[in-house]
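Structure first, sequence second, as always.
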């Protein structure tokens, strides 16, 4: 019987295995290892992400039920102690590097959303994952709370994260923001961020690099209007002005002129004020660009609801980071499959289908063309003892 055509096996074929082996050698991760190799560990953790496993015991039980399938995938063991030891000791950087290697593959085939402008568009933001400080004592956030932060630069045209920085919860959002390598951002790009990322020296670096930015105005900012940028205003644009900072220290840090746009949103019945160094796009385009920041909020919401990044299989920093990077790899694999197969349904629907059929021996292309009712009928045929609906 052939085990090489399971959905899981086809999923793994998208992983750049040669690159993965290269990273393993760089970190000497498999030195003196007999069973729980880096690949074995990766398969186990990816399986846990795909099927939503919450504990090492669940993983071990699932492994034992399909031992022959696992052997043909390259996994020899799922012993709880071995998984725990590997998560604690084997460097998470192997999986971090694998993420960025897979990201390159995704960028080559990912279709881009169309906007009314040609500039590359990026959003930067962060999200907190709460942790118990007594268990995760390395993840300090406050005296009584533990947490870590995922800082993320998202390409809004592809909805794929291009830079991820995972820190302790106490690390300021702005600190992580300023660690972005500006050389990696194409000149002429537009960077969107909220009021937590106001740093005038950093803004000047962006401007000097010919990178545009759009930010909300903060109440304590002293802004002086120099004149009108547009005398004829578009619908819902209340003002489109040329401005500068009135505060002497702020003006010294950012001496250039800026553009202030005030926009009235009919849906929320609220007025919004934006600052930008882009004087070419229309006021409505500036407003719509800031609305695109919502995409990163949706991304954070999606990964928290559909990936295992809120409950962890280990408590050490290395174990937690390993699990998060494997979760991000799984997200890229789902995105890669969705784009390669031109799957028309949502990423959530794809996630559910993969979870229910991971160890089925069927073509993934055929599987993704099935309706939900047909899918569950096939599942009953494959595993009648596991189905009670």
């Amino acid at each position: 019987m052939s085990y090489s055509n399971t959905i899981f096996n086809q999923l793994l074929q998208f992983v750049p295995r040669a690159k993965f082996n290269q990273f393993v050698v760089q970190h000497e991760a498999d030195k003196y290892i007999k069973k729980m190799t880096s690949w074995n560990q990766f398969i186990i953790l990816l399986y846990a992400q795909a099927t939503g496993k919450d504990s090492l015991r669940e993983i071990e039980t699932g492994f034992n039920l399909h031992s022959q399938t696992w052997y043909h995938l390259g996994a020899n063991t799922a012993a709880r102690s071995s998984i725990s030891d590997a998560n604690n000791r084997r460097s998470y950087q192997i999986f971090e590097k694998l993420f960025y290697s897979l990201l390159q593959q995704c960028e080559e085939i990912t279709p881009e959303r169309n906007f009314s402008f040609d500039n590359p568009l990026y959003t930067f933001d962060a999200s907190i994952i709460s942790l118990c400080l007594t268990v995760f004592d390395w993840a300090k956030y406050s005296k009584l709370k533990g947490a870590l932060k995922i800082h993320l630069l998202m390409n809004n045209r592809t909805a794929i994260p291009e830079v991820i920085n995972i820190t302790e919860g106490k690390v300021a959002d702005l600190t992580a923001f300023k660690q972005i390598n500006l050389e990696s951002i194409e000149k002429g790009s537009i960077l969107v961020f909220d009021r937590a990322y106001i740093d005038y020296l950093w803004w000047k670096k962006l401007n000097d690099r010919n990178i545009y930015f759009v930010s909300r105005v903060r109440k304590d900012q002293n802004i002086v209007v120099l004149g009108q940028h547009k005398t004829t205003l578009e619908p819902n644009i209340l003002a489109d002005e040329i401005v500068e900072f009135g505060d002497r220290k702020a003006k010294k840090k950012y001496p250039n002129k800026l553009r202030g746009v005030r926009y009235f949103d009919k849906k929320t019945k609220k007025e919004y004020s934006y600052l930008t160094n882009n004087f070419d796009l229309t006021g409505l385009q500036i407003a719509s660009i800031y609305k695109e920041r919502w995409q990163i909020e949706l991304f954070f919401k999606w990964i928290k609801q559909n990936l295992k990044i809120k409950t962890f299989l280990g408590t050490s920093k290395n174990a937690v980071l390993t699990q998060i990077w494997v979760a991000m790899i799984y997200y890229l694999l789902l995105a890669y499959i969705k784009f390669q197969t031109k799957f028309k349904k949502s990423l959530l629907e794809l996630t559910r289908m993969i979870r229910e059929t991971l160890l089925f021996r069927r073509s993934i292309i055929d599987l993704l063309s099935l309706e939900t009712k047909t899918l569950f009928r096939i599942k009953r045929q494959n595993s009648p003892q596991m189905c009670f609906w």
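Margin note: Residues 234 and 282 are 8 Å apart (CA to CA).
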